[in-house]
Amino acid sequence: MQIRLALVAFVSSSLVAAAAAQSAPARPRITGISHLAVYTSDAAATEHFYTASVGAVKESDPENPQGVRYALSATQFIEVLPLPAGAGINRLDHAAFNTESAEGLRKYLTAKGWKTPAHVDRGKDGSRWFDVLDPEGNTIQFVQPPANPKPVAAPNAIGHHIIHVGLLVHDRATEDKFYRDLLGFRPYWWGGRDGKTEWVSQQVPDAHDWIEYMVSGGPGTGIPAGMSQQTLGVLDHFSIGVPSVPDAYKVLVAADRLMGRHDQAPKIGLDGKYQFNMYDPDGTRVEVMQFHATEKPCCSPFTAEDPAE
Any long-range contacts for 202-205 (C-beta under 8 Å, 24+ apart)? Predict the structure, then answer.
């Protein structure tokens, strides 16, 4: 009798667990980078940088009437917002990823116990989005683009594909609980100098764009005391992919499009890819990066396909 009761209890608990698993919403696809939202202390200088140097197209901001967008394609852009009081050296508002269903992803995260808003927001362009905080308090936005995104004509853009965004990170394992364990991001590459892990690339689960952990913060969370605005701008950054960085650099030089702070010439990073760094007037780094490596990377092989044009 006791064996029978135990068997019944086991079967019942298994059925309950199976039913719960079936009722939990599936995670909608996360399909790449949407944008990086940054602050400016000089709107005119920032506009000149993003339109002249980067070659993006200025647009109104359906999400925030105080902001502007500098678009590289129909679904990728840089959002620039006025510098809020008390921002200190911080110039990052949020990083954003595209998803096929903002509401579906919100429900998924809610069901998994992550703190989410009560509803998604809607923009004038038909987009939908919501914000959450990652384990270290970075604001992360998930955007469902409009059903028929407006085409963007940006013939002078140095590239049209934002392939990654980078954020100051203190603890890789803590961040992995959100990006990898909960959302399904996948390892792509990691590396560093002097035996340290400084850069960890995690690709979105349903495409090849990635988030780069800039593991430079030491213990704790937030902006470390004593960190300069220049250093923070190197860490909090975005990258535009191109077939050839040396060719892109030649275009910038020939058209006299370089301004402000920038590298003296392209270089090959420890990941074996050519790169060239420019900085907007508030110090946010714009990294022009080659899609494919030309040399063997240090530290780790690539474990997933590269993004492409």
Answer: 202/176, 203/304, 204/30, 204/31, 204/32, 204/33, 204/97, 205/27, 205/29, 205/30
> Closest by alpha carbon to 130, among 104, 163, 158, 164?
104
Is 137 domain-assigned?
Answer: yes
CA distance 211 to 138: 12
- Report pLDDT for 218: 79
Asked if 115 and 133 count as a contact pair (C-beta separation under 8 A), the reply is yes
Residue 19 pLDDT exceeds 80? no
Same domain, 181 and 137: no
> Could you tell me if residue 156 is inside a domain?
no
Q: What whole-number distance in Å separates Cα of residue 126 and Cα of residue 248?
A: 34
Q: pLDDT tens digits, residue range 68-115?
A: 999 999 999 999 999 999 999 999 999 999 999 999 999 999 999 999
State the Cα torsion 261-67-166-125 to the nearest 10°.
Answer: -130
Residues 178 and 285 reside in one and the same domain: yes
- Structural domain count of the chain: 2
- How far is residue 205's CA from residue 207's CA, in Å, rounded to a whole number? 6
Same domain, 195 and 230: yes
Pair (93, 187) in one structural domain: no
- Asked if 79 and 144 touch (Cβ cutoff 8 Å), the reply is no
Question: Which CATH number goes with the domain that contains 198?
Answer: 3.10.180.10
Residue-range definition of the domain harbouring residue 285:
161-290
Q: Specify the pLDDT at position 221.
A: 87
Size (the chain), residues: 309
Residues 255 and 210 in one domain: yes
For residue 189, what pLDDT is reported?
A: 98
Q: Where are the alpha helices (DSSP H) in the chain?
A: 2-23, 43-48, 102-111, 172-176, 229-235, 245-254
Per-residue pLDDT, averaged over 10-39, amounts to 72
Q: Using an 8 Å Cβ cutoff, are 79 and 50 in contact?
A: no
Nearest to 134 by CA among 169, 107, 100: 169
Note the pTM of the prediction, 2 decimals. 0.92
Mean pLDDT, the chain, rounded, equals 93
